[in-house]
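Anyone have C-alpha cells for Elongation factor-like 1? Sequence:
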Amino acid sequence: MGPAGLDRIISLQRNPANIRNLCILAHVDHGKTTLADCLVASNGIISSRLAGKVRYLDSREDEQDRGITMKSSAISLHYSNGDQDYLLNLIDSPGHVDFSSEVSTAVRLCDGAVVIVDAVEGVCPQTQVVLRQAWLENIRPVLVINKMDRLIMELKLTPQEAYTHLQKILEQVNAVTGSLFMSKVLEERAEKEEKESETTSGDQVYDWSAGLEETDDSQLYFSPDQGNVVFASAIDGWGFSVKQFAHIYSEKMGIKRELLLKTLWGDFYLNAKAKKIMKGAQAKGKKPLFVQLVLDNIWSLYDAVVTRDQEKVVKVVTSLGVKVMARDSRHSDPKVLLSAICSQWLPVAQAVLSMVCEKLPSPLDMAAERVEKLMSVGARRFDSLPEQTQELKRAFLQCSSAENAPVIVFVSKMFAVDTKALPQNRQRTLTPEEIGQRRELARQRHAARMAAGQTAAESNKDHIHSGSVPQEGQPSGICTAKMENLTLKDSKPEESAEQRETFIAFARVYSGVVKKGQRVFVLGPKYDPTQGLSMLPESCSASDFVPDVPHLSCCSMESIYLLMGRELEELEEVPAGNVLGIGGLEECVLKSATLSTSPACPPFIPLNFEARPIVRVAIEPKHPSEMPKLVRGMRLLNQADPCAEVLIQETGEHVLVTAGEVHLQRCLDDLRERFAKIEFSASKPIIPFRETVVRPPKVDMVNEEMGKQHKVAIIHQMKEEGSQGRSSDNLHVDPSGLVTLTTPNRLATVSVRAIPLPQEVTCLLESSSELIRTMEQVNMSLREGKNLDINPATLEAMVGLKAQLENLLQGRKWRNAVEHIWAFGPRRCGPNILLNSVEGYQRPSVWQCLGRVDDVDEAGAQAAVLRDFDNSIISGFQLATLSGPLCEEPLMGVCFSIERWDVQSSAAPQSQDSRFCEDLAESKVERSSEATEAGPSQARRRPDAASADCYGPVSGQLIASMKEACRHAFHAQPQRLMAAMYTCEIMATAEVLGKVYGVLGKREGRVLHEEMKEGTDMFIIKAVLPVAESFGFADEIRKRTSGLASPQLVFSHWEVLSSDPYWVPTTEEEYLHFGEKADSANQALKYMNAVRRRKGLYVEEKIVEHAEKQRTLGKNK
Ligand SMILES: Nc1nc2c(ncn2[C@@H]2O[C@H](COP(=O)(O)OP(=O)(O)OP(=O)(O)O)[C@@H](O)[C@H]2O)c(=O)[nH]1
Ligand SMILES: [Mg+2]
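Reply: yep, here.
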C-alpha cells in the first residue's frame, strides 16, 4: 500500500461513526473469499481482472492448493459512499467445519456480518451455524445471495423460476433467524415472569404467545425491500440490491424511487397501460416487477453473450453505456466479456459496500445489551459487578479515543507470521537521498580499491617503503566501517532470527487509544475485578510496580500493526473502534485475552466454539534428540491455533488434538514447516471409545429369541467363570452380578453391582457436566466448612437437574436412587453414577449443596473418619470409571450401586497382625448375617481407632479394592463398547446417490434420512458415521462422485456398538451362521483389540490357526 493510502486509512481510523467492522460468513465454498477479492480489488490492491482468481486473503500455500480458507484474515478497505468516506475492517472467515473456531474469533471482533448463501445450494448446515454464531455475539447480519450465474448457466432456470427459487432461499434463511429470535424472546419472557412472580403472587393465566407479538422483529429478517439483501455473482463481478434498480427505473419510467424500492421485490406487477404498479401478480398470472425489470435483463444479457449474438451485445453495451475493450469482446471465453460488461454495469463491490455502510452498525452503535453480555463473566449478573466496572460500560458505549479514556482491547487469537515479513524487517524502498548516498559510498569504495591496488603494486615494487600508510587509505577505512554498519543493520534480523515466527495478536480496541509501547494489564479468563480492585493500590497503572494478583499480569504492546491481508503496516497508535494486530504479547497471552489499562475491567466472556476437538494423534520425533524442538514447536502450534490442543498423556506420549481430518493435516504441516522444523512421525489418529454395560439382550446374534434356558445357560457360564477365574478368597461374584471384594488385609469389604443407566440419563449427565462440576465445587467448599453464595440461576439449574433425573429414573429398581447419588465420575463430573444403596447408611449425597443437610449430623471426629472412608470409596469409583476393563477407555452410562460395605473396627495398624484371625472370623460372620447395618455402625462404634489409619493400609487398599470391585461388577454384566459418532450431511445429485450410499455402507454409516432439496435436483442425505471409520471418508466420497458431493463431519454423540466384544457362538444356529471362530463380523472386538494393541495391553489372538494349510500353501509355491 502506498503512503497516501496508509495516511487515508489512519485518518479514517479516528472517525468511529464511519468505521464498519465486519466479517464474511458462509458455508464452505459459497464464495466468501471470491467476494472478498472483489472488495479488495475495488481498492486497487489487486487488479479487478484477477478478482476471484487470486483469492488474495487466502495467503497460505495450502489454502491456495486446496481452494479452501483455513485461517480468518483481515484487511482494511476504504470506500466512498456519496460524500462520506468509510473505513471497512473486513475479516474473511473459513467455512469448513474443522475451522469453525476461526469463525468464532472473527465474529467476536465485528459489529456486523455479511452472510453469503449459494443461490443453488441454499441454506446449508454451516450457514445455520454461522447465523447462530452471529446471533450469539449480537452482531447484525446482511445477506448476499451469491452465484446467481449458476441459476442461469447451470440450472437453466427461467427468470420466473429463478424468482420463485430466490424467494424460497430467503424463506429458509429467515426461518433460521426466526427460530433464533423465538428462543430468545421465550427466554426473556421467562426471565421477566420470574421477576414478576417474585413481586406479584397469585394465579396467572399462561399466555404462550405473549412476548412474541410485542417484540418488534421487522428489522431482523432479510428482505430485499429492506435493503439488506444483495444478489450477486462474485465470480462474474456483478451484484445489486433493489436500490440500484429502483434508481435506474425511477429515472427511466418516471416512477417514484421510494415506491419502486417497496415494490420491486414482492407480489407486484406493472400495469403498462395505466402506468401503475399493482398488487397481486401471482393471482393474476402477471410477471412480478422483479422478474420483468431485473431478472429478464440479466438473463437476456447472459443469453446474448453466451450465444455470441454480436448485434445484441453491441446494443446492450451501448444502452448500458459501458465500455468494453476489444480484447475482451474477442476473447474465446464468453465469461470474460460477461464479467467485463457486468462489473461495470452492476459492480458487486459497490452494491455490497454501500449496503454494509448503510445497514451495519458502527462501533458507536454498540448495544448496551452486548456490552453487558461481553462483560458478565462466570454467569454473574452485570449489576453484581463492582461499581467501577459498571462504569466501564460507558466507556464501551462511547467508544471514545480521548486521552483519559481507559484502554480496553480484546485479543481473539494469536497468529504466527514469519519474522522476516514484519514491516520493520522488510526491505523498504530507499528514498532518492539514500540511493544517492549509497551510490557515493560505492564510488568511494571503488576508488579506494583501485588506490589500494595501486599502492600494493607499488609496495610490491618497492619493499623498502613498507609501513608507510598511503594518504588515500584513510577514507577507505572509514568507508568500510560505514559499509559494515549498513550491512550489519541489514543482516541483523537474519542473525537474530533464531525464532523465525513472531506472534501477532488479532485484536480490537473497544475504548481508548492503543499506543506503541504502552503497558497494559493482561486479564486472564478467571480474573475477578472485585478481588483485583481490593488488592491493587488505588489508581494503580500497569507501568507501576504491581503486586501479585491472581490471573493478572502486565505487558507492553511493543508494536502495533494495521492488518492488510498478507501484509502488515506498522502504526504508532490505533484509536477505539478498530481491528488491529499487536506484537510483543506472546509471552503473556496464550490464545485469547482481555487487555486494559484499568484493573476494574472484567475479562470478556470466553469465545464460544462450535466444534469440539476430537481427533487425536501422538507425535514422535524421528530422532529422539530432537524432542525439545518438537516440544517447543507444539507449544507454538498450540498458541497459533484457537482450537488445537496439545497435551502429554499419562503414557508420556505427546498428543495433538484437532477438530477434524483437514484441521489435523493443517496442524501437522504447520508443525513440520514452521514451528518445529524437524522430521517427525504422527501416529494414526487415536480414536476415543467409551465402555458401558447393557441389559441382557433379548435376542441372540441370529435374531433368535433367547429362551429362559439360554439366559440361564449364560448365567451359569458366568458363574463358572466366576468360580474359576475370577473368584478367589477375596472375591465373590454372585449370579445376580453382585461383586463382593475384601481388601488384601481383610479389614474392609465392599459389595458392588453395575447397572446400565437409561440412555436419556447418560445424555443428560453428559450435557450437564459443567453444572455437575460447579455442584461438586460447591460441595467441596461446603465440606471444608466454607459457605458459597451460589447464583440463583445456577441453583435453580441444579434443582432442575435433580428433578429431571428423578423423572427419568423411575421404577422399582431406581426407587430413591437420585436422593442417594454419592458421586459422578470420572473426574467427578462424568456420565457415570455411584449410588449409595447401603441400607441405613446416610452419607451426604451430591445434592448436599441444595441445602438438605439432614443427612448426617455426627460429631466432628466421627464425620471426619467416615469422610476419609467415603473419599477412598469415591476415589476408587473415579479410578474405575476413568479406565474400564475392556480396553482402558473411560466408562459411560454405568451406575455402580454399593450395596454393602464393612470396615473392621480394629483397623488400626498396630493391631493388624495380632488380630488378624479374629478379624477374619468377625468379617465372615458379618457377611453371612444381615450385615448391612454392621459396616457403618462398626465404623461409628470406634471411630478413633480407625482414624489413625485414614492414610494407612485400609484407606489405600480400600481405593484399590473399590476399583477392582467396580471392574468385576462391570465384567459381570453384558459389556459393550461405545463409539464416537459423526453426523454428516451430504449433498449429492441423483446420479451419484448410489455411490454415496456405497461408501457410507462400507464404513458402517447409517442413513438417517434423505430428502430432495426443493427446486434443485440435489438430494440431501443425513447420516451418522463412526469416527473410527471416518478417516479418508471425505476424500473417498469426493473421488467416487467426481467431486459432486462433499460431506461435512461434525461430532454428535456416543453410540453403543451392538456386538459384544467377548461374544462366542453358543447356539447351533449361531455356529452355522458365523462358524466356529466367529471373528469375522465382530466389529467391537476389532476396535477393542486395536485399542489394546495401541496401549500395549494383552491381546488374545491366535496367530496361526491352520498350520497344515499353511504348509500346503508353502509347498505349492
Ligand atoms: N459460478 C460461480 N462460482 C463461484 C462464485 N463465487 C465463487 N465461486 C466459486 O466457488 C468456489 C469457492 O469459492 P471461495 O471464494 O473459495 O469460497 P469460500 O466461501 O471462501 O470457501 P471457504 O473459504 O473454503 O469456506 C470457487 O471455485 C469459486 O470460483 C459465483 O458467483 N459463481
Ligand atoms: Mg474462503
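Residues 32-33, 69, 92 surround magnesium ion (ligand 2) (CB under 6 Å).
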